[in-house]
Amino acid sequence: MQLDKKQISNKIKQELIDTESLIIELKELTKPIAPDCAIGRVSRMDAINNKTINEAALRKAVVKLSSLKYALERIDDKDFGICAKCQQAIPIGRVLLMPHSRFCARCVD
User: Where are the chain's structural domains?
Assistant: First the structure.
């Protein structure tokens, strides 16, 4: 498998920018809901549910950001693009789609 390191590096950098923007947006959406807000009980429950969903998305985005930074740091390693579990080459399409993934599609839990 021939990896185009420059193309992958650019993809990772763009993903970093996008993920950082998403984190900022999600942090805004997960701010505490003031109990004195003049909203109805059902609307308040809906707002709390949405906050919980956004908190889960925020946690996932933070993990992705960390993985992207790690991938960018090790892009020049000889084992970049090699599955951490089965030691086979990860298809270039997957590397470009998910540059932060350390596993091939077969080995993902």
Answer: 5-78
